[in-house]
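Q: Start with the shorter request: fold the first protein.
A: Done. Sequence, then structure:
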Amino acid sequence: MLRAGGPDFDTDAYLADSPFEHVTRYRRGEPRWPGLAGASRTSGFDVTVSEADMGDLATQIDEAIEFLDKHEDELRRLGRFEGVEEMEIDFAVERRDVAVQAEWFPPELLWRAGALDIALRITHYLALQRES
């Protein structure tokens, strides 16, 4: 997931002429997620970068590199857009029942994201039992 935002980011103005189709849009002062208490301190949006399952980090990484290549010019425009203070790609990863869990990003992804001032995040989710 690509996330972009900032306290003074006008998401409506940016998305009006952006090719990105947001999955989520949030505004400062409004609840970030429906049904949860608390107002968002920033305005921003989320865009799907990869359709890969959270158990397939390798495919998420490959698709993120493709996304960065395909949208490089638009990501540069987004990074310069008034009010944008942070951009990140969040990788959803299943938390395994192990003592230590390590994830790895290849230099190509780090280089491409860094060149666009995009941070990388890994969010671990509890693995749910799958039916056989």
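Q: Next, the second protein, separately.
A: Sequence, then structure:
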Amino acid sequence: MINSVTSFCALRALRPAGEGGWIGSWAPGIGDPTVVGWVTVGLYFVAALVSLRVGWGRGQRLARSERFFYRGLTVALFALGVNKQLDLQTALTELGRIMASEEGWYEQRRRVQRVFILLVGLVAFAGAGTGLFFLRRAPRATHVTLLGVIGLVAFVLIRASSFHHVDLFIRSSWWGIKGNWLIEVGSILVVIAGSVWRSLSLARS
């Protein structure tokens, strides 16, 4: 109980005067209460369950690299599903803004943001390259799953970049369908398709 109170007080200390959130203007809640938002969360959890079935349910029949891939993917998909509504990246952005203001480097925040995004991008592409290398001999079904993962990585980087032209694209809509829905939901569906394919191929073997 004492630890909970201490943690709550620490979060309140991050809230500047005049801002009603826990960290700046951010507070835990439902970040995307739309139908599409909840459908996306559901798809993340479905993808996590299918990956779980491949990595743990039939994991003993997979190569070590493939087993590690599907098990790690299960955790990542579940975390992305939870984050879809908690919007933790906004909390991180708010925390950076507060630190920049209090420590006197607010005017250079854009440069710091670009460096941070560059580092995240390099780590993401390094991870994708490593996955491609270790899974190069995996079945086509796993390659399809990996393609969906790369799409999700690209989506996360696009959302983090906050470049003007990129923002215009992902916020644009065609016949009521937004660009960010196409990238995110499309990538999740590819992950589900590849994972189901791999699960079925293992069941037949």
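Q: Describe the second briefly.
A: The longest strand covers residues 173-174. Residues 32-204 form one domain.
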